[in-house]
């Protein structure tokens, strides 16, 4: 079984200058969980003497709240987290995603798909069923070129072939080392399947957009919540096929709601009250293993950077 290990060592003479980022989606304002993610990425950048950027992931404008991106930037500034460059807005970057998709199509790795969710469910059932992954069925490859492709029908979506060969016969196992979670592996075609790059409604999928943007912004380190670790293999594969640099990855512990589920906008997380920014930082820092007392936001952040640089904090 082919194994691909694209992750570089954590320190080498060729290590690029540190550039990190926080990439919120403006479908709502920052909540306690998203502040933890923002703070972790900012601290890691500062502890490495690097730059910290913000990218507003608003490519799905239909789900975004008017003005939420600007309000998120204001929330970050309220707790002292100010990006080193002007924020980037994904809604303005469609030409970059289109160019990447065309490269993958021309190389034979991306193909058009006509399947609806109902079609996929029927195909999976006919084949005896496959393991559901986070509520999504692994795509059975119905529209792969090796199986006849579109046959004159217009594509609804575009997918990436998840095998190690264009014929669609060889398993593709991806291995990488997360800075907190350690060695991780995933057999992409078995556990994920051929994943969407551009949706049937014309919107860009997160996987393609994030890979293109990280490369375009020169991101060397991605620090984000552990719920996104499962996305990493898809992004590694796209980086391989597009010939893009591979960032280092650090996935932080999740902030959980009272019912044990990830705290998120989808399960009712309330916007972060920032009338007391220092208290908000203290609570976020505790989630990351930081127990810091300080009189001002600036003093708290300075102490937090020193603690972060001193060694591992997160469980």
Automatic annotation (TrEMBL):
<feature type="binding site">
    <location>
        <position position="139"/>
    </location>
    <ligand>
        <name>Zn(2+)</name>
    </ligand>
</feature>
<dbReference type="InterPro" id="IPR049940">
    <property type="entry name" value="GluQ/Sye"/>
</dbReference>
<dbReference type="Pfam" id="PF00749">
    <property type="entry name" value="tRNA-synt_1c"/>
</dbReference>
<keyword id="KW-0067">ATP-binding</keyword>
<feature type="binding site">
    <location>
        <position position="57"/>
    </location>
    <ligand>
        <name>L-glutamate</name>
    </ligand>
</feature>
<keyword id="KW-0030">Aminoacyl-tRNA synthetase</keyword>
<feature type="short sequence motif" description="'KMSKS' region">
    <location>
        <begin position="262"/>
        <end position="266"/>
    </location>
</feature>
<keyword id="KW-0648">Protein biosynthesis</keyword>
<comment type="similarity">
    <text>Belongs to the class-I aminoacyl-tRNA synthetase family. GluQ subfamily.</text>
</comment>
<keyword id="KW-0547">Nucleotide-binding</keyword>
<feature type="binding site">
    <location>
        <position position="206"/>
    </location>
    <ligand>
        <name>L-glutamate</name>
    </ligand>
</feature>
<feature type="binding site">
    <location>
        <position position="224"/>
    </location>
    <ligand>
        <name>L-glutamate</name>
    </ligand>
</feature>
<feature type="binding site">
    <location>
        <position position="115"/>
    </location>
    <ligand>
        <name>Zn(2+)</name>
    </ligand>
</feature>
<dbReference type="InterPro" id="IPR014729">
    <property type="entry name" value="Rossmann-like_a/b/a_fold"/>
</dbReference>
<feature type="binding site">
    <location>
        <begin position="21"/>
        <end position="25"/>
    </location>
    <ligand>
        <name>L-glutamate</name>
    </ligand>
</feature>
<dbReference type="InterPro" id="IPR022380">
    <property type="entry name" value="Glu-Q_tRNA(Asp)_Synthase"/>
</dbReference>
<feature type="short sequence motif" description="'HIGH' region">
    <location>
        <begin position="24"/>
        <end position="34"/>
    </location>
</feature>
<dbReference type="GO" id="GO:0016874">
    <property type="term" value="F:ligase activity"/>
</dbReference>
<feature type="domain" description="Glutamyl/glutaminyl-tRNA synthetase class Ib catalytic">
    <location>
        <begin position="19"/>
        <end position="121"/>
    </location>
</feature>
<keyword id="KW-0436">Ligase</keyword>
<dbReference type="InterPro" id="IPR000924">
    <property type="entry name" value="Glu/Gln-tRNA-synth"/>
</dbReference>
<feature type="binding site">
    <location>
        <position position="113"/>
    </location>
    <ligand>
        <name>Zn(2+)</name>
    </ligand>
</feature>
<dbReference type="InterPro" id="IPR020058">
    <property type="entry name" value="Glu/Gln-tRNA-synth_Ib_cat-dom"/>
</dbReference>
<feature type="domain" description="Glutamyl/glutaminyl-tRNA synthetase class Ib catalytic">
    <location>
        <begin position="189"/>
        <end position="269"/>
    </location>
</feature>
<keyword id="KW-0479">Metal-binding</keyword>
<feature type="binding site">
    <location>
        <position position="265"/>
    </location>
    <ligand>
        <name>ATP</name>
    </ligand>
</feature>
<comment type="function">
    <text>Catalyzes the tRNA-independent activation of glutamate in presence of ATP and the subsequent transfer of glutamate onto a tRNA(Asp). Glutamate is transferred on the 2-amino-5-(4,5-dihydroxy-2-cyclopenten-1-yl) moiety of the queuosine in the wobble position of the QUC anticodon.</text>
</comment>
<protein>
    <recommendedName>
        <fullName>Glutamyl-Q tRNA(Asp) synthetase</fullName>
        <ecNumber>6.1.1.-</ecNumber>
    </recommendedName>
</protein>
<keyword id="KW-0862">Zinc</keyword>
<feature type="binding site">
    <location>
        <position position="143"/>
    </location>
    <ligand>
        <name>Zn(2+)</name>
    </ligand>
</feature>
């Amino acid at each position: 079984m082919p194994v691909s290990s694209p992750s570089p060592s954590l320190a080498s003479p060729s290590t690029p200058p540190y550039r990190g980022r926080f990439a919120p989606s403006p479908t709502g304002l920052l909540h306690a969980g998203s502040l933890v993610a923002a703070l972790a990425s900012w601290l890691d950048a500062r502890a490495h003497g690097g730059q910290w950027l913000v990218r507003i992931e608003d490519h799905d404008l239909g789900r975004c709240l008017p003005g939420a991106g600007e309000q998120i930037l204001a929330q970050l500034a309220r707790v002292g987290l100010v990006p080193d460059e002007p924020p980037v807005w994904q809604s303005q970057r469609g030409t970059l995603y289109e160019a990447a998709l065309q490269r993958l199509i021309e190389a034979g790795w991306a193909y058009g798909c006509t399947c609806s969710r109902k079609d996929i469910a029927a195909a999976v059932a006919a084949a005896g069923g496959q393991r559901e992954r986070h509520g999504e069925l692994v795509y059975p490859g119905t529209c792969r070129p090796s199986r006849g492709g579109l046959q004159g029908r217009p594509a609804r979506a575009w997918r990436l072939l998840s095998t190690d060969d264009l014929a669609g016969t060889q398993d593709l196992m991806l291995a990488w080392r997360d800075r907190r979670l350690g060695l991780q592996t995933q057999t992409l075609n078995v556990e994920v399947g051929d994943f969407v790059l551009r949706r049937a409604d014309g919107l860009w999928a997160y996987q393609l957009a994030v890979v293109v943007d990280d490369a375009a912004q020169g991101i060397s380190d991605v620090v984000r919540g552990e719920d996104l670790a499962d996305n990493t293999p898809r992004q590694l594969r796209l980086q391989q096929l597009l010939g893009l640099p591979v960032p280092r990855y650090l996935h932080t512990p999740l902030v959980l709601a009272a019912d044990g589920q990830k705290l998120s906008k989808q399960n009712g997380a309330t916007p972060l009250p920032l009338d007391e920014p220092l208290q908000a930082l203290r609570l976020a820092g505790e989630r990351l293993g930081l127990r810091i007392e300080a009189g001002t936001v600036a003093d708290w952040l300075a102490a937090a950077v020193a603690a972060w640089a001193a060694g591992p904090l997160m469980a």
